[in-house]
């Protein structure tokens, strides 16, 4: 099950579970659309994989399967895409 992390790893922007502006790689690294399209150029800075839109979990399912509250943030921001 996806963790649905609460923020962008680059800029720390909040990305609630119903956000349509959250993007993930196959390892669930999470980024906002601005970082994805800008500095990252569509690729995860951690693994190099493609960043795709994160699915939205229906609100009724969040009751028993809540989103993660653990924030992940790169201390130095995100380097330009490789």
Automatic annotation (TrEMBL):
It comes from the Bacteria. Keywords: Plasmid. InterPro entries: DUF1272 (IPR010696). This is Urease-associated protein.
């Amino acid at each position: 099950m996806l963790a649905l992390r609460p923020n962008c790893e680059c800029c720390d922007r909040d990305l609630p579970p119903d956000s349509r502006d959250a993007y993930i790689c196959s390892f669930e690294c999470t980024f906002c659309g601005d970082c994805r399209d800008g500095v990252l150029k569509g690729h995860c800075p951690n693994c190099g994989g493609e960043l795709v839109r994160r699915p939205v979990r229906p609100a009724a399912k969040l009751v028993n399967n809540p989103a993660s509250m653990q924030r992940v943030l790169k201390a130095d921001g995100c380097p330009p895409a490789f």
